[in-house]
Write a structure and sequence with these properties.
heterodimer; A: mainly beta; 6-stranded mixed beta sheet; 0% helix; B: mainly beta; 57% strand
């Protein structure tokens, strides 16, 4: 079975700190894509970052970067210089290249404190 | 309008009502999806349409009826719902279906009384 595990149900950090959200997944596929989505209180699901499994280089988007360890099936998200607007639920997900169904984790609630 | 829009944003309905949720994508995508998000549960994929053709019905009860008249519009028709159907219903779209990034609308918060 293909699964995504986010082991941290909730985290909180002070504004401007760096925080890392963990994600592990299980799949027998070799080609797939990994995502982090953010869902703030407004409920809009927003793409944060995408990583292709065949790329060794870790994806970055401004203050957001990932640590992708394919052999360990690990895909953590690092948020640098955290801001109050980063407060949200963060979901890790992946989709095999052969399929269209996103496999979702249960989410991590991140609270940025002023 | 840009991205993916959904209307209404909030809906309260009785179990005997019939209502419809609407989704529209302005991204030129070919695939559209309906998801259900309940509290403390992972997102559940309900339906997938690719080029207006339904490619997935994830064992969804028949009281949910999707309609995709074209690649830009997706509806979810609701009738005789149950209180446990109360949830956030999210629409998403992607360029294709295999390995593609999905972009989401703001969702419709549904309460069934």
């Amino acid at each position: 079975a293909q699964t995504v595990t986010q082991s941290q149900p909730e985290m909180s950090v002070q504004e401007a700190e760096t925080v890392t959200l963990s994600c592990t997944y299980d799949t027998s596929e070799n080609n797939y894509y990994l995502f982090w989505y953010k869902q703030p209180p407004s409920r809009q699901m927003i793409l944060v970052i995408r990583q292709e499994a065949y790329k060794q280089q870790n994806a970055t988007e401004n203050r957001f970067s990932v640590n992708f360890q394919k052999a360990a099936k690990s895909f953590s998200l690092k948020i640098s210089d955290s801001q109050l607007g980063d407060t949200a639920m963060y979901f890790c997900a992946f989709i095999p290249d052969s399929n269209y169904q996103l496999i979702w984790g249960a989410g991590t609630k991140l609270i940025i404190k002023p | 309008e840009t991205g993916v829009t959904q209307t209404p944003r909030h809906l309260v309905m009785g179990m005997t009502n019939k209502k419809s949720l609407k989704c529209e994508q302005h991204l030129g995508h070919n695939a559209m999806y309906w998801y259900k998000q309940s509290a403390k549960k992972p997102l559940e994929l309900m339906f997938v349409y690719n080029f207006k053709e339904q490619t997935e019905n994830n064992s969804v009860p028949s009281r949910f009826s999707p309609e995709c008249p074209n690649s830009s519009h997706l509806f979810l028709h609701l009738h005789t719902l149950q209180p446990e159907d109360s949830a956030l219903y999210l629409c998403a779209s992607s360029q294709g279906t295999r390995g593609e990034t999905q972009y989401f609308g703001p969702g419709t918060r549904l309460l069934v009384l």
